[in-house]
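Q: How do we represent a protein-ligand complex in a form that can be generated cell by cell?
A: Start from the inputs.
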Amino acid sequence: MFDLHVHSEYSDGEGSIEEIAKKAKERGLKVIAIADHSVEHPLGLDEGKARKRSRDIEYCQSKYGIRILDAVECGIDAEGRIEKPKHKFELTIASIHETLPKEEYCKRVIKCAKTCEFDVLGHYRSSIFGTYESEVDEMDMEVIDVLVENDIALELNTAHLSPPTEVVEIANGKVVYSIGSDSHTLSRIGDVSWAMKVLNEKVKNWKCILKKLGESF
Ligand SMILES: [Zn+2]
Ligand SMILES: [Zn+2]
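Then emit the C-alpha cells for the protein with zinc ion bound:
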C-alpha cells in the first residue's frame, strides 16, 4: 500500500513528519510522498523549509523503515506555469486550485504538461474546483495524450474524488497512475481505497508511477 499525496505542517497539513511517518507505518504503508504546497501558497515551502523538511524525512525514513518521498505540490497558474523553491524534490505534483470553465482548465493543464517539468497531474477535474460535472470530451482526450507523451502520471485523488471515473475509462491503460489521499490530517493518511477500487474495476493491468521511480509497494 502507498499514498503519494500527503500534506504536513510544513504547509497546511496538521501533522509533523514524525507523526505522519508513525501513522503511515501503523497503517501498513510502504511508500508515502509528503507533497507540501509550493511557493505560490501562503503556507507553502520555501528553500529553507524544504531543506529542514528533508532532514526530518531522512531521519523518519530510517527510524520507521518506510520509504518517504521528498515531494511538492505546485499550483498551476493562469499562464500554465508552476514554481518551486530551489531544492531537489523526488516527486513533483502539479494541480489547479481554482474554479475555471472546463476549456480554460484543460488549456492550462495542457500548456503546463508541455512546458514544465513535473511527474504527476494532481486532482484533475476535482470535485472541489469545478469542471467535475462536465461531459468527458475531446479536451480530456487531449489532456491524456499530452500526459502520455510527456511521461506524466494521472493521479487518483480520494479527497477530490478525481478524476471523474469516465476520465479513467477513456485514459484506461494508456497512462501511468499515481494514487493519493491528499490528507491534511493524520486520520486520513492512507485513505486510498476509492482510488484502488476505481483502478481495479476500470483499468486492466494499470501502470503505477512507483515502478518508474524504482520503488515497490
Ligand atoms: Zn491540490
Ligand atoms: Zn494537495
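The pocket of zinc ion (ligand 2) is lined by residues 5, 7, 73, 182 (CB under 6 Å). The domain at 2-213 is CATH 3.20.20.140 (TIM Barrel).
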